[in-house]
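Quick note —
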Amino acid sequence: MYTRTLLLVCSLSLAAASAFAKEEFATAKEAEAMVKMAVDGIKANKQKTLDEINSKDAKWVDRDLYAVVYDMNGKVAAHGANPKLVGKDLIEIKDADGKAFVKERVELAKSKGKFWQDYRFTDPLTRKLLAKTAYCEKVEDLIACAGIYKR
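Predicted structure written out below.
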């Protein structure tokens, strides 16, 4: 009886622990939450938020999820994974399939304001080229995005 009870308690503890453990990779809900946090931050204090993202502050980089902010001309204002891109005009950059995803992102921001966008990009964790979908929102004169990799 004691052994069965102990086994049951251990099983329930493991199940509870795994339910609260973070997944290995980010989810769509987490991408949307990060973009909302960026939008709120930009509205409250634009420069501070951009600086935090560029410094790879822990709240802006989570596993394979990171914030990216563009101006309405496709220039990088902040990049959580690669701050060396800040100030670079990426309007003409294309993904592995030849899709000008930053140009499309700017157009979608102008026409829709909030949107999901599909393209292919290198996963920062695995370094593999994967299908990716990014959630983006236009805020003031910027576009805040965070994307997840389709696995």
